[in-house]
What does this fold into?
Amino acid sequence: MQFRHLPLSMASILCVSTALVMQNSAEAATTEDLALAPTAQTLTARLVAPATSERAFQLEVFADPSAPMGVGNLSSASWTDPHTGAVTTVDAAVGADNIARFQIMAWKSIAVTVAYGAATTQLAVDVAPPRVPIKAPSNAPLQQLAYRTNLDPPAIGAGANSTVMMLSAQRRASMIGRSWHRGCISLNSLREVQVNYWGVDGYRHRGILIANAAVAPSIRKAFTSMHKVGYRFRSMHPVDVYGKNVISIGANDYASMAAGNTSIFNCRYQVTKERSRIWSPHATGRALDINPWENPYLARGAILPNRWWFDTRASSPLVIRGASPVTKILRANGWRWGAWFKDYQHFDYRG
Ligand SMILES: [Zn+2]
It folds into this structure.
């Protein structure tokens, strides 16, 4: 099935497969029961072309003509959001054509339960990712178990759809004591950049980067270009989710790297140099770490977050090289790659 309202490039590769099983599960009834029971419908649920984006689709529910639903009566559809776990139930009135129509918001895969009176049916909807998921080489180490799940929510709107805003009170509260503390640059000099990105799972996600206000416009531009060329990310969220670094000040960058998380601001010392208190350029929100799991840092006495990708030089669309589109895009926007000091995940802003 083609998604008619998607941009052509996505519509051509996005498909929806359905496994539809419906049966009114009433047990065998006596003649007397049947006389008293309301008419038992046999419902059918089917998918029609989605209306708005890769997250939405339309469902039509109808009954066997021998026992039609009552026009104007309500049918319901419920489903669980795979990302948030929230259950949504919506009603739709049966139309004059004996069809109830639903607009469902889904992501990845969901099962929709449709009901009319005592009759129910379930429709399993597998919304295939618009792009092919990226698989690591079979002998590559897995990310640390606790961080392997991609935490980021679905994309919002078409394209990169980037926004830049002041830090909300909620954002500040989650940063204080983790990525920010007294003595760091003012929270007012930082911005939250939100941007859609292509995930390793082939779906588009909404990413959040905390950056210095001075570099936010260039970050916005660069990440819009990265969305355009389809560069993939494991995750892109503020480092505060990983808690405080147990060794020193700042949020736990070791965990963020182990998660393969792309991030900018973290008011911390350089990793492995905490004791000598050498500030990291991330402390001012002018340095960017991209896909650290596949792009290690050769720190003093350590290769972080793992050495496999460095030792093997294995290729992956996530691995950054000098000629990679990601490097060219960032260079064009004023960022210098950290390969010259063996930090392959790192870029810093030169203006
Ligand atoms: Zn860095």
In short: Confidence is low (pLDDT under 50) at residues 1-37.
